[in-house]
């Protein structure tokens, strides 16, 4: 289950990572899971002998909430760029232009 901007991408990442995805449950980005939703997910997983897997972001938001099962597994995703030097240059260029606009409009 995932409450992120593109949950289907997360589910594809699970599959690409070799996870056998039996069911998916997408939620809206920044979804505030209710106790009832988590209880239903946990009951479904127990009944079907499945493991609940979610994003690290969603699990972090659930930590400390009452009634959250301890056995929810976070799936870590790393972002890796093919050309990190180009990314650094792009960011530097945008920051430079933003600074120029800020100081040249006074």
Could you walk me through the main structural features you see in this protein, from its secondary elements to its overall organization?
The protein has 106 residues and is mainly α. The chain has a domain at 7-79. It contains 4 helices and 2 strands. It has a two-stranded parallel ribbon. The N and C termini lie far apart (49 Å). The model has no long low-confidence stretch (mean pLDDT 90).
Proportion of residues in β-strands: 5-15%
Low-confidence stretches: none
The secondary-structure element order is: HHEHEH
**Helix share bin:** 40-55%
The coarse silhouette is elongated
Taking the alpha carbons of the first and last residues, their distance comes to: 49 Å
Please compute the radius of gyration using only Cα atoms. Answer: 19 Å
Q: How does the major sheet shape up?
A: 2 strands, parallel
Q: How many DSSP H or I helices?
A: 4
Adjacency order of strands in the biggest sheet: 1-2
Averaged pLDDT? 90
Structural class: mainly alpha
**What is the number of strand segments?**
2
Could you name the key traits of this structure?
49% helix; 2 strands; mainly alpha
Topology readout:
Blueprint: H1 7-16, H2 35-48, E1 53-55, H3 56-62, E2 73-75, H4 84-104
Parallel strand pairs: 1-2
Provide a concise account of the structure shown.
This protein has helices at 7-16, 35-48, 56-62, 84-104; strands spanning 53-55, 73-75.
């Amino acid at each position: 289950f995932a409450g992120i901007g593109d949950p289907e991408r997360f589910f594809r990442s699970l599959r690409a990572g070799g996870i056998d995805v039996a069911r998916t449950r997408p939620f809206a980005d920044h979804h505030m899971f209710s106790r009832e939703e988590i209880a239903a997910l946990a009951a479904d997983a127990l009944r079907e002998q499945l493991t609940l897997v979610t994003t690290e972001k969603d699990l972090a938001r659930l930590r400390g909430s009452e009634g959250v099962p301890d056995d929810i597994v976070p799936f870590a995703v790393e972002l890796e760029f093919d050309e990190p030097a180009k990314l650094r240059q792009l960011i530097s260029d945008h920051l430079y232009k933003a600074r120029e606009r800020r100081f040249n409009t006074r």
